[in-house]
Amino acid sequence: MTEWLDPLGRGLIVTGAIFFFAGSLGLVRFPDLYARLHALTKADNLGLGLICLGLALQAATVAAALKVLLVWGLVLIASSIGATLIASTALACGLRPRQRRPPPGVNGQEEDMPR
Amino acid sequence: MSALTLGFDLLLVVGLSWLAWQALFDPHRFSAVVHFMAFGLLMALVWVRLDAIDIALAEAAIGAGVTGALLLAALGRLPATAGHAPAWRVGQRPLVHLALVTTLMSTLALAWVAWQLPRPGLAGPIGEALPESGVTNAVTAVLLNLRAWDTLLEIAVMLAAVCLVWSLGPALTPYAPATALPGLPALTRLLHPLFLLVPAYLLWRGSHAPGGAFPAGAVLGAGGVLLVLAGAVPWMHDPRRQPLLRLLLTAGVLLFLGVALSGLLLTGTFLDIPVGMAGTVILAVEVAAALSIALMLMALYLYGEPGR
Fold it and tell me: Per residue in B8-35, pLDDT tens?
C-alpha cells in the first residue's frame, strides 16, 4: 500500500527543485526588482511546497508530515507579506517598474531589453 | 554515497570561506550584510552536518536571522553616502596583511589542536553523568549543569552587549518607512501566537531533545523584534516601566547567579545543583534565560537607552 509513497515523494522533490532553479534563474536574469520578486514568490514557493509535500510523504509519522507542511504554510505567509513590504517600500522610494518601452533618452539603448 | 557527502562537505567549506571573505571585504555594505546572512545559514548547515542540531538552531536564528536583520536595520538608518565602505588607505595595507597572516596562522594552529584532541571525546563521561544531571538531553546537561559556568558567562556577555548599545545614547524611535505599510503589523499579529507557542515547545523539549533556552529565546526574540520594528511595544519606552524592563533583562543572569550561590551554600561547591532538584532548577533557569535572551535581542534593536 505504502510502497508507492517513496517514489512519488522523490518525484515531487525533484520537481520542486526544478521550480527552485527556475525561480533562482529569474532572480538573476529578470530586469527589475518587481519582476525578480515575482520569480521568487511564485516559483520558489511552489517549489518549496512540492519539496515539503515530497518530504511529508516520506515522513515516518503523520505528525512529522504535518510539521513539514506547517513549514510551507509559514513560509507562504511570511514571504507573501515580505514581498508586499519590499515592493511597496521600493515604490515609495521612487523605484519605477521597468516598462516595455522606456521613454527615449532614458536607458533607451540597452541590449538586454525584453521584447 | 560517501563520495556524495564528501563533495557536499567540500562545497560547504568552499562556500563558507567565499561568503566570509565577501562579508568582510565587499565594499558595498548592503551586499556585505546579505553575504553575512547567507554565511549564517550555511554555517547552520555545517552544524547539522556535524550532528550539532542545537547549535544549528541557534546559529540559524541568531546568527543569520536576528543579527542579519539588526545589521540591515542599522544600514537603513545610515545616510545614503555610507553605502560604500571607503577603500583601504596606503598606511592601512600592512596592518590588513598582518591581520590576514595572523588569522591564517591561528586557524592552522586551531586546526592542529582540534586534530590532536583525544578521541572519542567526552561523550562517554557525559553519558555516565547524565542520570545525575536532571535532564536526558546531553547538550542541555552540559550547558546548564556540567558546564553551567560557560553558559552563565555567555548570558552575561549578551547583557554587557545590551549595556554597550544602550550607552550610545537615547533610544531611536521605530524606523517608519516612507509610507505607512499595513503589512508589517498584520504579519506581526498573524504570527504572534506561533512566536509564543514555538518557544514554549522548544523550552519544554530542551530537557530531552535538541532545543532549550537559546533557540527558544531566539524565536521569542525574533517575534519581539518584529513588534519593535512595527512600533508595537510602547511600554519599552515608558520611563515608569524601566525598572521592570531592567529586571526582566537581568532575570536570566540573576536567577543563574542565585542558583550558583545556593549551590555554594547547600553543597559547598559553586554552581553545584543537588541531584534531586536538578530537573526543576534547570527548567526554571531555562525559562528565565530564554525570557532574558528574547528581551536582550529586542533591546539591541532600540539602538540606545529607552526612557531617557
Answer: 999 999 999 999 999 988 888 889 999 9
Structural domains counted in chain B: 1
Cβ contact B187–A89 (<8 Å): no
Of B177, B186, B191, the CB nearest to A92: B177
Domain that includes residue A79, residue range? 2-94
CB contacts < 8 A (A, B)? 29
In a domain, A25, yes or no: yes
Chain B residues contacting A via beta carbons under 8 Å: 177-179, 181, 183-184, 186-187, 190-191, 194
> Is B117 inside a domain boundary?
no
In a domain, B251, yes or no: yes
pLDDT digits (tens, 9 = 90+) for B68-88: 888 888 887 887 777 787 777
Instruction: Determine the average pLDDT of the residues in B114-143.
Output: 82
Domain hosting residue B158, numbered range: 137-308
How does DSSP assign chain B, residue by residue?
-HHHHHHHHHHHHHHHHHHHHHHHH-SBHHHHHHHHHHHHHHHHHHHHHTT-HHHHHHIIIIIIIIHHHHHHHHHHHS-GGGGBPPPPPGGGHHHHHHHHHHHHHHHHHHHHHHHHS-TTTTHHHHHHHGGGTS-S-HHHHIIIIITHHHHHHHHHHHHHHHHHHHTTSBPPPP---SS--THHHHHHHHHHHHHHHHHHHHHHHTTTSS--HHHHHHHHHHHHHHHHHTT--GGGG-GGGHHHHHHHHHHHHHHHHHHHHHHHHHHSSTT---GGGHHHHHHHHHHHHHHHHHHHHHHHTT-SBTT-
Chain B closest-CA separation from residue A78 CA (Å): 7
pLDDT in tens, B46-62: 999 988 888 888 888 88
ipTM of the complex: 0.71
Distance from CA of B179 to the nearest CA of A (A): 6
* Predicted TM-score (pTM) of this structure: 0.81
